[in-house]
Amino acid sequence: MKKIIQLFKQRQKRDMDKTCSSSVKYNEQLILDKEQLQQYAARYDGKLLLEEEFYLPTSLFTLLVREKIITPTPSITASFFTTTCKRCHQSEPQYFATIHCARCEKPHLYCRSCIRMGRVMECTPLYEWTGPPMNWPVHRAPCSWQGELTKAQQHAANRMVKTFEARCSLLIWAVTGSGKTEMLFPTITAALETGKRICIASPRADVVRELVPRLQAAFSSIPIQGLYGGSRDNDGTAQLLVSTTHQLLRFKHAFDLLIIDEVDAFPYHQDLTLQFAASRARKEESSLVYLTATPRKIQRQQMAMNQLDYVFVPARFHGHLLPVPKFIYCAKLQERLVSDELPKEFIHWLHTRKKPSRQLLVFASTITLANKLTEVLQTLFQHDYALHQLQYNITSVHAGDEKREEKVAAFRRHDYHVLITTTILERGVTFPSVDVAVLDASHDVFDEAALVQISGRAGRSQADPTGEVVFFHDGKTNSMVKAQADIMKMNRRAREKIVGEDE
Amino acid sequence: MKRCLYCQEAIYLRVTWNNVVQLNSPSSLCELCEEKLEWIEGKRCVVCSRESPANCCYDCKRWSEFYNGKDPLIRNYSLFTYNDFMKELITTWKYRGDYVLGTIFQDVFKQQYKKNYSFIMKQAIVLPIPLSEERLLERCFNQAAMLGQFISNDVQIGLSRTLSEKQAKKSRFERITMKNPFKQTERLNKPVVLVDDIYTTGRTLRHAAQLLTENGCPEVYSLTLCRA
Ligand SMILES: [Zn+2]
Ligand SMILES: [Zn+2]
Ligand SMILES: [Zn+2]
Ligand SMILES: [Zn+2]
Question: Are A333 and A308 part of one and the same domain?
Fold first, then answer.
């Protein structure tokens, strides 16, 4: 198809300025040929965007709309009883408010639920690409990874490839440290070899940031982009995307293969708008893979009732068992922590760790406690003779911490020996050799899934496949007991070498 | 169920001395969010409302010198300190465009206007600091105009911008020495109360006040939500 379009001769100067930034320079006449349309298709096909998210000069945008290459669709629909935002699918009334809009000079609704992605208003439509679809290139042997999968990984990988070929859904239940990223490689390879578009989505930006370089190393010739709030490649034009589940709100019928990592993690597991966004981001004929180490009740039920195909990977890639958490009781733990007092049981453990050279990851229940612990531990390290000898450096991170990325990187470089964190580092982030302590494990924020994930931070490398995990508590909770039982059960299954339900 | 306008947490009816006595309409914020709002209390600079032990703070003395003893802005009154929470709230309101968040301040803004400007309320003209046309079309509302409407049914225009708002990113020195970004579109010969969301250096408000005074306005005051 060859489409030749002439652009108006008159344009505002403002438009020219914008054009330069998007690097499409055009003269008095613009001819959009097949090739240029493909460039635009790469940027816009499979998206659902507000006008300002196109970053196109007004005249060009108007032209594309007039030629029905971009088509408007209502952004907020109101029927008699319900109002729905067509971007995030929110329909709870408290998420809609009225704005007295200066653009259209009328009062009307806007959506508060997805406002962080740019404001959706009743008076301005969303736009979809309706021009010639994007033909993603076919890549020959795109995988440059030289490693080898373990038997358990290979088994799961094969199931995943089959799922992809049959355009079905599959859940991979793989314990922490099983090497699930590597299990994805054969399926990603199959998708790239057939010219498909792929997205790996995670509820957490940390995970996205960690995944991009690992994938780039494994697929060195393939352009890969990471999408998260504030990321550099936010235009999402690559064939292989790694994205937060939030960013999926800007996609519609985009992906042939959607992989949702950490499907049980906050906020995805309880946010219906994100779950909606994920299902809309898939093409009608596409495959879906969920990854989790700690499935929630809903997924467990679906597996039990055969509504969700799954494969179980109980073994870690290095073949060693999961570290089982040890419980240490400290009377009046919460009170003591509040009054800047470290429990003597914790200090004793610090003195008697089997491998003091291992880095130490301490999980605290709240930001306040994390900050406080940092101070108190610093003082301890200065005054306690034995610990002083070890020259421990210490820092802390939490969700609102601006230097979070930096500090995690510094810990990875061994600039710090001790890292105190809230639950934000409970998953997705891998350090090769750490001991793990939770203070206080009885706190509500540590649910079963969180505790299993936290325990999974230890013993992650071939060189140091074990590690100590200790829950300091002042009263065993159900979550603690269940988490420990879960881990032991998975270890049992790993020993029995039960791999997958279909064998 | 009523929810906090800011964090969406459920609000349960609180029985406080206030609603026992006068059945105040309950706040649109939950207790936790409301606690994070920091009222300016105690001794403040009589000119700019900053918390200050001195009657007139150092900056305001400098402003007075700058204008040869005739500071065109007689007085600014601010309600809140521009703390981290307020910064976040105003960013969401003004830049992300969550219009309805402005209504959190509807009652208090009106109360404080009555309390602090009762002496001129009858004749004063309420004049919000305008946005440029470009900004207004981008954001779809002017936060200062919204605040102005809380205290007057007859908000005036009177000023427009000749320079855009890019000053938000400028240094203090550049701000002080910059050209007056306003032009007056209407003669106003009654006292004026300027309205804006934040008093930072006082430069913007004084540019407006200077222009108004030069064109025959007898007195210029201002009411701002925050003192940065
Ligand atoms: Zn409108
Ligand atoms: Zn929405
Ligand atoms: Zn709140
Ligand atoms: Zn002052």
Answer: no
Those residues of chain B whose CB sits closer than 8 Å to some CB in chain A are 3, 8, 92, 96-100, 136-137, 139-142
pLDDT at B121 over 70: yes
| One domain for residues A372 and A250 | no
Tell me, yes or no, whether A486 and A419 share the same domain: yes
B142 to A102: CB separation less than 8 angstroms, yes or no = yes
**Domain stop point among A255, A280, A313:** A313
Task: Tell me, yes or no, whether A197 and A224 share the same domain.
Answer: yes
The bound ligand whose nearest atom lies closest to the alpha carbon of A102 is 1
Q: Which residues of B touch A99 (CB under 8 A)?
A: 97, 99-100, 140-141
CA A249 to centroid of ligand 2, rounded, Å: 9
Are B92 and A115 an interchain contact pair (Cβ–Cβ within 8 Å)?
yes
With cut-offs at 50, 70 and 90, classify the pLDDT of residue A30: low
Q: Domains in chain A: how many in total?
A: 3
Residues A226 and A188 in one domain: yes
**pTM of the entire structure?**
0.85
Q: Do B8 and A94 touch (CB under 8 A)?
A: yes
> Position of tokens 């025959």?
B216
What CA–CA distance (Å, rounded) separates A337 from A376?
10
CB contact under 8 A, A99 and B140: yes
Q: What is the CATH number of the domain that holds A389?
A: 3.40.50.300
Domain range for A46 is 2-129
Q: CB of A375 within 8 A of CB of A403?
A: no
For chain B, residues classed under CATH 3.40.50 are 38-227
Alpha helices in A235-320 (DSSP H): 272-281, 297-304
Q: What is the average per-residue pLDDT within A97-103?
A: 96
Q: Which helix (H) or strand (E) holds A100?
A: strand A96-101
pLDDT band at A430 (very low <50, low <70, confident <90, very high): confident
Mutate to test the interface with A, among B9, B30, B134, B140 (most CBs of A within 10 A): B140
In this structure, the answer to whether residues A218 and A100 fall within a common structural domain is no
Mark whether A185 and A250 lie in a shared domain: yes
pLDDT digits (tens, 9 = 90+) for A443-475: 999 999 999 999 999 999 999 999 999 999 999
Residue A196 lies inside a defined structural domain of this protein: yes
Of B8, B96, B99, the CB nearest to A116: B96
Given A266, A288, A313, the domain boundary residue is A313
Angle at the Cα of A416 from the Cα atoms of A412 and A417, rounded to 5 degrees: 95
Task: Give residues whose Cβ lies within 5 Å of ion ligand 2.
Answer: A 85, 87-88, 90, 111, 113-114, 120
User: What is the Å distance from ligand 1's center to B186 Cα?
Assistant: 28
Amino acid A17: pLDDT = 43
Ligand nearest to the CA of B101: 3
* Cβ atoms within 10 Å, residue A269: 19
CATH class of B38-227: alpha beta
- The answer on A432 and A378 residing in a single domain is yes
CA-based nearest distance B110→chain A, Å: 20
